[in-house]
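Reminder: ligand-aware prediction takes two inputs, not one.
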Amino acid sequence: MGLYSIRMRGAEGGPHEEGGRHISGAERIVNECELESVASSLIHRALHHSKGKSDFINIRIDAVSDNDITYVDCLDIEEHTTKSVESSHELAKEILQSVVSHKAVENSFIELEKLPDNMRGAILMDAQTGVRLDANHLRGVRVSHMDASGAENRSMNVHMREALVLATKVQSCPGIVGELCWSDDPDYTVGYVACNGIYHRIPNMKEIGNPIGGRVFFVDTNRPIREIVDYLEHTTVLVRW
Ligand code: AMP
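Here is what comes back for the chain with adenosine monophosphate:
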């Protein structure tokens, strides 16, 4: 049976392209027989999100050819415990320093902490110099065309499932050595660092109620940025659990 990519984005105050505020976005790659039920669960998410109720919902469905799919193994998960935002950030910085310069680690936190509003995508940062490489600083780079394949034999919430799939695709991109993330969902304060094949799940990455989140992808390569962005935005990746 054929596979389909299904992507949803919802906004309040009209479509995104007409200035609407982004509420929710999600995507899956599923069998034809799952399309209808997945579409209805994506609509539910756009309508019932802690950030608000979408009055614009766009759903796009495209068939995917099996030849165009890259399969990658899921990152290993390490769960950490911390007591405060400060100790979480210290831990995240320590982990990142195995792949990223001190300067780049510091700059990534500075960039995320000064965001006036949520970006749609992620910041791309040079892992040595800490300089931003993404062309559009308001939008960043938006990773798309990914999902997990096969039965999940672990129980995890939808946040973590999506973050793990995204982080696995990002780490499978040649030239990317690490990622830092915390959510823009005001109720969800767990974040993560991904590097060296491990997804480090870290609680207390921000204060509860803070509606701003973000992601930084660290690049360490001479590979053209255009090729990295093309992989992140367009290559269809299915993560094997
Ligand atoms: P979330 O974990 O969905 O709350 O997202 C946290 C932040 O990560 C968002 O505010 C965006 O800046 C960024 N982000 C969310 N989805 C993506 C994506 N598909 N690709 C790149 N960055 C993303």
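The chain is about 25% helix and 30% strand. The longest helix spans residues 158-171. We will return to this case in the review session.
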